Sequence to fold (384 residues):
Amino acid sequence: MSEATFDRPPNRLDPIGATAAWAMTPLTSGAAVAYAVVQSILHRDQVVSPVLAVVALLLLVAAGVELSVAAHPRVGRLDRGGAVLVVGTAVAAAVVSSLSMWGRNRMVQDDWGQIAIALIVFGLVWLRPPWEIILFGFAGGLVVGTLAGEQPGLRISTTPYVYGVVAATPVLVLAAAAATSGFVVIRFSADWTASSERGMRALEPEFRLLEQDALRRGQLEELRRATLPLLASIAERGMIAPDDVARAAAVAAHLRGQALAELRTTWVDRLLADAHLQPDAVHDPERLLPLLRAPERAAFGACLLELLRRGAIDAADVRLVVLPEPGVDAGRARLELSTSITADWRLACRTARPFVSVLRSFSPDAAITRKGSMMTMRFGFATA
Fold:
């Protein structure tokens, strides 16, 4: 297993699991906000500045909302800068909360800042790599620990070091739990993927034999259908007529043309046939679509067929446009599917969401949007 694997967040390796578990993030964010509100009400007599206390709660709400939106399957991504912003906002909320009680705070255990940071960091478990979560937890624990050690007037008299450990422990413990969970998900997902690839490679010779056997059977059937009438007529007459030569040449040309057509058939042609799309539905002037990798083909094709099966889109109105990425993205192309929505938008969105999540594991810019009655799905893919 390569080190680069552990540099990827779990939702890139297991997008289906991330989709199923996304509700955990708004729950942890909501728990952080609820705990902060309850603690603020219960210990309102310790508040020096109500304005700062309200600002702290609003900052925590902002961090929770951003994290919840980023974890939603329709978005499903949070880059490093966004994660720093989320955790930084939660840390700022804890700092402002401490300032709102500065000099009147009685016990470090009553502060909600460390619990809020810990829950926000824990909410990153599917969105960021484990090593980043550890760093975020360490940074958050350092800040709240330093604040706890510097606060004056605490009821329990002990060294600042003890205050710091008490405040930092929840952040470090939940960060370690999140990082461990992410590590386990990544490892099992990577092992499962590697095992599946080995199994597919081991079965590839058998698949090829089955494919060759099916092709041979089809060719024999076509050969019988095309040649048996000619041979039967010759056998019935007991002689070869002059026009039999021309008929035999026509049969040979037909069989040769059919064999060449089968060789030239691509997955795009099969998709058009399976989805009953119009012949001009694909606009791919540079022939980039056949370069789409097998996992992306499977996810995109399954999404299109499922949308059509559920009546969410109209096959007669589907358009596929494939063009090279402009500018600096050499070696990449963009596929865009546009079609009119023939059912409720929520049905189309709910149907496409798991497939888009899978595509997003290969292409972070994969998205599905709506404009009026038109739906658009787009994602980029490598062509080199």
